[in-house]
Amino acid sequence: MPLALYALAAGAFGIGVTEFVIMGLLLDVSTDLGVSISAAGQLISGYALGVVVGAPLLTIATGRWPRKTAVLGLMAIFTLGNLACALAPDYWTLMGARVLTAFAHGTFFGVGSVVATGLVAPNKKASAIALMFTGLTIANILGVPFGTWLGQAFGWRATFWAVTLVGIVAFAIILLLVPRSQAAPEKSDLRGDLAVLGRAPVLLGFATTVLGYAGVFAVFTYIAPLLTEITGFEEAAVSPILLVFGGGLIAGNLLGGKFADRWLVPSVLGSLVVLALVLGSMTFALHSQAMAVVYVGLLGAAAFATVAPLQMWVLEKAEGAGQSLASSFNIAAFNLGNAAGAWLGGVVIAHGPGLSAVTWVAALLPLSALAVAALALRLDTTAPRVLLDAQRTL
């Protein structure tokens, strides 16, 4: 794997820290800025909304740029956004800075996926995407806990100063290591790019991503109450157990990339089946502390085993000028799935069967994603035959 992929992983690491570290600093932010905990929690929702809205907009805006230039521009936005967070004098300025930072998120991973696949041989493309996303998984294991400790020890602004420094370093590494050969993408107009998004397999690929990841976050959002109220762990045990989840993220991410390089379609379908099985059987595993820890790791592995296959699948279906836009839309789809899963889990807890049912309800979502993926494959294989029959009729 070329060193340029590790440069992209460095950028992914910084973005991952920015997205998730705020969860551990909500109390500090709310106290310092004089807002409620629920208002501080909206900083997470604002970021997710920024990813969903910003991914297509920024991809369109940078669509005619050389891809290396686009990635460097995105890292500059990310760095300036975190600097603005560190300097924010009030809540709404912080919210605006978070949204600005989020704009770079979806487009970085979308364009970065295209850049990564262009750096390696055709049989290594999914592994290249997985390696870039390793930066995101390492952010969850190391960056977020360290950033939380730093913010609690020296004030939440110290965390954003540190992430600003990470952004500067990542910018420099990308500038030095990503080759200039990543030139301008195929010429296209906006209408052509949007036409690519309108392809049925691409749209169904987005739907598969949303449903698959909604299953993950329907459970992961509520992992702390699941472990404490059902399994019986003390609250202090949750953070160490989440390290097991992080280890699963790395293993699943790399395995998903390896399998997708050889068998892309079976990897998409198989990873969704495994995710559904893990979520469904977790309903019973949570009643044993030892098995609960094992299943937290399996959940991490099953969750990120889907990422590289789904991203690579959408890239293949969007082959051509609209590839970067489709790739960024799929990153937005992951975040939309995060939000939808968290909402559904909350509905199940507050108005449905209750906390103990969250895992088996969540298992229905990747099964739905599997059905959508099967439909996409059916349409993809029958379309040429339909066209041939029409030509014979004429």
TrEMBL record:
Transmembrane stretches, start-end: 5-27, 33-58, 70-89, 95-121, 128-146, 158-179, 200-224, 236-256, 263-286, 292-315, 327-351, 357-377
Matches recorded under Gene3D superfamilies: MFS general substrate transporter like domains
Subcellular locations according to the entry: Cell membrane
Record's GO cellular component terms: plasma membrane
SUPFAM superfamilies found in the cross-reference section: MFS general substrate transporter
Major facilitator superfamily (MFS) profile domain sequence ranges: 4-380
Keyword Lipid metabolism: no
Keywords: Cell membrane, Membrane, Transmembrane, Transmembrane helix
Main location: membrane
InterPro entries found in the cross-reference section: MFS, MFS_dom, MFS_Efflux_Transporters, MFS_trans_sf
Gene Ontology MF, one: transmembrane transporter activity
Membrane topology: Multi-pass membrane protein
Protein name: MFS transporter
Organism of this sequence: Mesorhizobium wenxiniae
